[in-house]
Design a protein that fits this description.
Layout: H1 14-38, H2 41-54, H3 65-94, H4 99-108, H5 111-123, H6 127-151, H7 158-187
Amino acid sequence: MSEKLHPGAEFNHDGEAQAAKEQAEKLDRKAEQQEEEHGDSESISRIQKQIEAQAISSERAAPSVESETISLGSASVGRDLKQLTFNRTLVRVRKHLTAPDKALSKFIHSPFVDRLSEATGKTVARPSGFLGGGLVALAGTSVLLYLTKKYGYEFNYLAFLLLFVSGFVAGLLIELLIKLLLRKKHSD
């Protein structure tokens, strides 16, 4: 088994050599027969030129109404298939959860909560708001902590929440202002 046959290798047995010769002759006859049936390469190139001359280019061909409906239908099928797969996955995972976890999963994945979460994620949970809130809360509480220690006052923990909310609003306003300026700049 360690010996490998190569195209130019000699055969040790006369039977193997004879079988190989017969196979080669058989393949040659088959190739000649196919060439006779299908014509020579000149006729093939001539047929290809005729096809190219009669073919309509893709720019000239108008899209048919059927192709639009098929593409819309396939998008709907893809969406439905994704939803079905998602629901089956939820059912499969919920089988392994405890009763309180199942109830929480059903509540979290209900259509109302999903829509509310998506809408909130697109509007409220902006990165610029969290960045602004975090920076203002960090700087403000640091200054407030320093002043309360220096002058002997008691630190109020509500200040962190108020500073974070004010920084969040400031971050959203700065983002809105930048977007308005960039939109105005691009429209000019």
